[in-house]
Design goal:
The complex is a heterotrimer of chains A (333), B (527) and C (322).
Chain A (H helix, E strand, L loop, with lengths): L1 H28 L4 H4 L2 E2 L2 E3 L5 H10 L6 H13 L13 H36 L4 H15 L2 H12 L23 H20 L3 H16 L2 H9 L3 H22 L1 H4 L5 H6 L5 H10 L3 H29 L10
Antiparallel strand pairs in A: 1-2
Helix pairs in contact in A: 1-15, 5-6, 5-8, 5-9, 6-9, 7-8, 9-11, 11-15, 14-15
Chain B lengths: L1 H21 L11 E6 L14 H7 L7 E3 L6 E3 L2 E6 L5 E6 L13 H12 L6 H4 L5 E8 L2 E6 L6 H6 L6 H4 L20 E7 L3 E6 L12 E6 L3 H10 L4 E3 L2 H7 L3 H6 E7 L2 E7 L9 H9 L3 H8 L5 E2 L22 H10 L12 E2 L2 E2 L1 E7 L3 H17 L2 E7 L1 H9 L5 E7 L7 H4 L16 H11 L4 H18 L2 E3 L1 E2 L1 E7 L2 E2 L14 E2 L2
Parallel strand pairs in B: 1-10, 17-18, 17-19
Antiparallel strand pairs in B: 2-3, 4-5, 5-7, 6-7, 8-9, 9-10, 11-22, 12-22, 13-19, 13-20, 14-21, 15-16, 23-24
Helix pairs in contact in B: 10-12, 16-17
Chain C lengths: L1 H14 L1 H23 L6 E3 L4 E2 L22 E3 L34 H37 L1 H16 L2 H12 L3 H11 L2 H15 L2 H8 L4 H38 L10 H7 L8 H28 L5
Antiparallel strand pairs in C: 1-2, 1-3
The chains are: A mainly alpha (333), B alpha+beta (527), C mainly alpha (322).
Chain lengths: 333, 527, 322
């Protein structure tokens, strides 16, 4: 076991380098770079455009005149020292920009995750218990429909019809905190913040119920069909006790292993939801960075996300093996 | 059991939602001395030397000041930080006398040192300001005469010299010269200026706030606080405006015409319109075989129904232009009429240039080559997309096959730089005085802004002579002749000068439209 | 053995009414996509004038060139397709006009008929869905089969490869590659195809591990059959059922990805209509032009739901636990 663990951790390094190298290559090779963006505003160019030698001067400033591999090597060197460099856009350290966007996305994702779990699991368990009944089939259909609704459409509709202006004015139009509330106390800020979060969270959660509810239902059904449950019944235990003590707990185990791969997903923001609701999170940050070829930011996000994914996969594999001794860790007998 | 929990949880959940929906924080009574302006994209930086976008310049125009400024109505150069200036007889030396006692918002006095510092920073190869360096290439040196006097020395005379050195961005030396990197200095996000407003805060992704500068030497503005709110969705911004969360924004034509017409709206808002020195156009790359012949370019212009597009697509908001000078400046030759929509004339010109459908396949051809080209448009411009789709339809009826290539802005700009395009849809945002050198002189074809490779001997001569012509009337005549030449050659199909369509809340009085637009520094808050 | 299990699965599938409904819709969409030029066109199927009978939609006639036969000045019998507009023709007098007799579903910002564009938009969705999925299913099967069959070092390397692919946040990978290649229908299909194969690869790999140990495979190996033959004839056919299921869901998600890309402005080139693109264009007039938002959104929703229903049905039908 220990040897396997060690081997996996060691393997993370080349994988990580591979991922970051490919990302760097793609961005450097992509047409357009940050210097040409300084040429003008979107859609209109300012007169007095840049002469070639001046552009070359700017390229040197940003290190874009160096060959790709040299650039990559320099990036790795800085990365090891945990220096993510400075964003091309405004010159601020990348870590500052990440520190601004990350908490927002993290909060949103955590709330989304909690709500999805809170709703899906009881739904799934209940559906399994009342298998093929009206509740089961009805819920199944409803969740299915929700799963198929395109999120950007739903976001637009929610914003339009519930977000005020022309129709109902139940929720705010954008951002995360209303104006003039800087002086308000903690409780008011919290309420206002929650109020702003409702529409984006609804948009992010509704599609997630289907999968988890179904998964929970399937797991519970499988567990119920097991022999030890039959034994418990034969022993005369009440149905409720059986469900809670045995079935319930055992069916939740796979869900835990699922959580491990969710680690990197927590940091990814949905570009679409963020741009529609004007939430300055990681999704917007990454999207904008790609569009403006802001290499330090792109590399920082890619590397962090890659690292977390790799760790998440490792954790998930380990947890799964720990929990279910039938699974072998290696590929062949 | 599960049912029990489930019911409880769902009741809790939905009641929470209802509570939130219902009792959100009550609308606090707003401070009337605050102006909320819509910002559709976040500026990169508020350093006037390294910034390149219009949002940044707009915000900075209330914080930073220059030696001179332009009168909002006459467009004349008038004193600002400099109380007067002297120009040497040979037009090479420009001496500015600064006003005494002008203070930066932190109380330190502005002196010649600040201007020398700013100029050196611009010339410094380590400073990321390529777009600005171009303007000062001909300035040999800037000399400090005394604490309140500086002199710019040009290597050759240039009629815009006064405007350029008078308009040099000035940053406070005592703040920036602290050893840290200029390009990433912390005061790029905390500008300190001499203007009527000073910077208060910048919440990334949300807003930028300015407050009245108590150290300002002039009259304190009525509006005490300005909040630039960042809202990228135009439709959302309009809703916010209607709700009262924004006071000042620019509209798209369709919003102006269809979504802001109710009586209720007009009771609460002014709708104002003014023209900037900018225009959009279709650029024909004359290096390509199709567009090297002037007759083809003229034909294509005849085949584009500019009037109908303006009337219907842009709801008549705009003016068709025929040249690059500012529509309302004297340089614009009003005697030139735009080539009207005339498909027959277009066909005739194409035939003259040798384009006929010899093999009856529906596409015009010449010397075995079909008339097929790609039209490059930036993905950020909705108008370009409309235009391109319309042109594709119209051209195909004549027998010209046009395909559309939509690129994201970064890629688009690079293609322009590399001259990798056949026809392109773009716009120019020019200054009010408009020296055509950078756009039209043949020396700028390879690496400058003359992307379409326009070359004409007479045009070159006019440009060169005009640059050293200090008499305004003589220069205007030259430029009007230049306008005729451009019109004759049609290197671009000029499209429109589009107005800024602005909406302002009637909470403010004295909202006047000047030639240069609006200036909230003069507005009064209504009682 | 293989044949009879498939027919049993088909019977199970047919019992599921929702899945059948889904398949019907999918079939209808395919039909619409194929027949688009016959459903929305500004040329009539048949035009009988006093002198001659024409079939303008099918053939080119020099004497009909540039003539808009919808106009009254061309008398005679004319039979037009149900939507008598092409998807690219514009009418500047009808900008953003709601559903009316003239334009069944309304018009867009250029006066183009929405119904015609929706019909042609089906082509983009179906094409992207089918081809991208075809690409990644093929890739996934090949890679998964090799890893699953050979195991050991080969599997180690391939598993690392799969890990690498998973670590790239898919959407941003797609955006970055599109930035590299330039947005176009072909590039979108290829990019989605090249980035989504990991799921299939893992499924196939898992299946191969399982089936490989079964007796009949071992027997086949002992009797000297080549690896290639074993993979192709014995293991692969039995491992395909989860692949089908995943692929069907994959079509739905690919259509969603394409719509999202178009919505963000990374989609097809104008004037090609794509539902996501139409939706994106409508953002600015959402408060009064409901048809530009509701209709393309509903179309995407119905398409995705149908594919998902079919996938569900397949999953139930193939369920080995029955």
């Amino acid at each position: 076991m220990k040897r396997y663990l060690f081997k996996r951790i060691l393997l993370i390094i080349p994988t990580f380098l591979g991922i970051t190298l490919i990302t760097f290559l793609m961005i450097r090779l992509a047409p357009g770079d940050y210097t040409s963006l300084k040429a003008g505003l979107q859609g209109e160019l300012r007169a007095g455009q840049i002469g070639q030698e001046i552009l070359e001067q700017e390229k040197k400033l940003y290190g874009l005149d160096k060959p790709i591999l040299v650039g990559y090597y320099e990036w790795v060197q800085k990365f090891i020292r945990l220096d993510f460099g400075k964003s091309r856009k405004d010159g601020r350290p990348v870590s500052t920009r990440l520190a601004e966007a990350l908490p927002i996305t993290l909060t949103l994702n955590l709330i989304t995750l909690i709500i999805i779990y809170l709703i899906s699991i009881p739904l799934g368990l209940f559906s399994a218990v009342k298998k093929n009944g009206f509740f089961d089939q009805g819920t199944s259909l409803l969740l299915f429909i929700l799963y198929s609704l395109p999120s950007f459409w739903v976001a637009l509709l929610l914003l339009l019809y519930l977000g005020g202006g022309e129709y109902l004015d139940l929720f705010p139009l954008n951002g995360l905190l209303s104006d003039g509330l800087e002086q308000a106390n903690w409780w008011e800020k919290f309420l206002d913040f929650s109020w702003h979060l409702v529409l984006p969270v609804v948009t992010l959660t509704y599609g997630g119920f289907a999968f988890l509810a179904r998964y929970t239902r399937a797991n519970l059904l499988e567990v119920i069909g097991q022999q030890y449950i039959t034994v418990a019944r034969a022993k005369g235990l009440s149905e409720n006790k059986i469900l809670f003590v045995h079935a319930f707990r055992n069916s939740l185990i796979p869900l835990i292993t699922l959580m491990a791969t969710l680690l990197p997903a927590l940091l990814g923001g949905s570009v679409i939801v963020e741009s529609i609701f004007s939430i300055p999170g990681m999704g917007q940050l990454a999207f904008e960075a790609i569009l403006s070829r802001d290499i330090p930011v792109i590399m920082a996000i890619a590397s962090i996300s890659a690292l977390l994914t790799l760790i998440g996969i490792l954790l998930s594999d380990l947890l799964y093996a720990l929990v279910d001794p039938r699974i072998r860790l290696e590929g062949k007998k | 059991m599960i049912k029990f929990f489930f019911k409880r949880i769902s009741y809790l959940f939905f009641s929470f939602i209802f509570i939130l929906g219902g009792c959100h924080p009550s609308k606090k009574i707003k401070d009337p001395f605050i102006l909320n302006i819509h910002l559709s994209a976040e500026p990169d930086t508020l350093n006037p030397i390294t910034s390149t976008d219009a949002y940044s310049s707009s915000i900075n125009s209330h914080i930073y000041e220059n030696l001179v400024e332009r009168d909002k109505d006459t467009l004349e150069i008038v004193p600002l930080l400099a109380e007067r200036w002297q120009i040497s007889k040979d037009k090479l030396r420009y001496r500015f006398f600064l006003k005494k006692g002008v203070k930066w918002s932190d109380g330190v006095e502005l002196t010649a040192d600040d201007i020398i510092y700013s100029f050196n920073k611009i010339k410094d190869p380590q400073t990321a300001c390529a777009q600005l360096k171009v303007y000062y290439l001909d300035v040999k040196e800037v000399k400090k005469i005394d604490k309140y006097t500086i002199e710019f020395k040009y290597s050759k005379p240039y009629f815009l010299a006064l405007e350029f050195c008078g308009g040099i961005p000035i940053v406070p030396k005592h703040i920036f010269a602290d050893g840290t990197d200029f390009n990433t200095h912390k005061n790029n996000r905390f500008p300190v200026g001499t203007g009527p407003y000073k910077f208060k805060e910048w919440q990334t992704g949300k807003k930028i706030v300015l407050v009245a500068n108590e150290n300002y030497r002039g009259k304190s503005p009525s509006i005490k606080k300005v909040v630039y709110k960042l809202v990228s969705e135009s439709n959302v911004a309009l809703q916010m405006l209607k709700k009262g969360e924004l006071d000042y924004m620019s509209l798209r034509p369709i919003q102006w015409v269809r979504q802001t017409n109710s009586d209720k709206f007009n009771d609460k808002f002014y709708k104002l319109k003014y023209y900037n020195p900018s225009f959009n156009y279709i650029g024909w790359n004359s290096r390509k075989s199709f567009f090297s012949d002037r007759r083809v370019r003229q034909a294509l212009t005849h085949l584009i129904n500019r009037k109908a597009i303006l009337d219907k697509l842009k709801f008549g908001l705009g003016k068709i232009v025929t040249g690059n000078f500012y529509l309302y400046s004297k340089n614009y030759n009003k005697n030139i009429n735009y080539l009207p929509y005339d498909p027959d004339q277009g066909k005739k010109l194409l035939e003259e240039a040798g384009w006929l459908d010899t093999n009856q396949d529906g596409i015009l051809d010449k010397d075995g080559q079909n008339f097929q080209f790609t039209f490059s448009i930036p993905s950020s411009s909705k108008f370009s997309e409309r235009l391109a789709s319309i042109l594709k339809e119209d051209f195909s009826k004549i027998g010209i096959e046009m395909s559309i290539n939509k690129f994201e802005w970064a890629v688009f700009v690079e293609k322009i730089h590399k001259r990798d395009f056949e026809a392109v849809s773009l716009g120019w945002s020019l200054g009010y005085s408009g020296d055509p050198y950078q756009l039209w002189h043949s020396s700028q074809i390879e690496q400058g802004s003359n992307y379409c490779a326009f070359k004409d001997i007479e045009a070159d001569q006019i440009i060169e002579q005009a640059r050293v012509e200090f008499n305004d009337q003589r220069r205007t005549k030259m430029y009007q002749r230049f306008h005729e030449i451009i019109h004759h050659h049609q290197p671009y199909t000029f499209l429109y000068c589009s107005p800024s369509l602005v909406v302002v809340s009637k909470r403010f009085l004295n909202v006047k439209i000047h030639v240069m637009g609006l200036d909230f520094e003069e507005w009064q808050v209504a009682k | 053995m293989i044949i009879s299990s498939w027919s049993r699965n088909w019977r199970d599938f047919k019992k599921n009414r929702l899945a059948l409904a889904g398949s019907l819709v999918v079939f209808l969409l395919l039909l619409i996509a194929l027949l688009a030029p016959l459903l929305a066109n500004n040329k009539p199927y048949i035009y009988i004038s006093k002198e001659k009978t024409y079939f303008p939609l099918f053939f080119d006639y020099p004497d009909l060139k540039d003539k808009d036969l919808r106009q009254n000045k061309y008398p005679g019998f004319k039979l037009f397709p149900p939507i008598p507009y092409s998807y690219s023709e514009y009418d500047l007098d009808y900008i953003v006009v709601g559903p009316s007799q003239k334009h069944f579903l309304g018009t867009d910002e250029q006066g183009r008929d929405l119904a015609a564009r929706m019909i042609y938009g089906t082509r983009v969705s179906i094409l992207v869905g089918l081809i991208a999925v075809l690409i990644y299913v093929t890739l996934g099967i090949i890679i998964g089969a090799i890893a699953g069959y050979y195991g050991g070092v080969v599997d180690l390397i391939i598993s690392r490869l799969i890990e690498i692919m998973i670590c790239f946040p898919t959407f941003f990978l797609i955006l970055t590659v599109l930035a590299l290649l330039g947005p176009s229908l072909v590039n979108i299909m290829v990019v989605i195809g090249l980035t989504s194969w990991t799921g299939i690869a893992r499924i196939v790999r898992g299946e191969f591990f399982r089936i490989r140990e079964l007796d009949y495979v071992k027997a086949s190996k002992l009797s000297g059959a080549s690896d290639f033959w074993i993979i192709l004839r014995h293991i692969l056919p039995n491992s395909l059922s989860p692949v089908f299921v995943s692929a069907t869901f994959g079509i739905a998600s690919t259509i969603l990805i394409e719509s999202s890309l178009s919505f963000l402005g990374f989609g097809v080139q104008p004037p090609t209509p794509s539902w996501g693109d139409i939706l994106s264009q409508s953002r600015d007039f959402m408060d009064f032009a409901w048809w530009l938002t509701l209709i393309p959104g509903a179309a995407i929703f119905i398409t995705i739901t149908s594919y998902n229903l079919v996938g569900e049905g397949l999953q139930e039908a193939f369920d080995p636990k029955k």
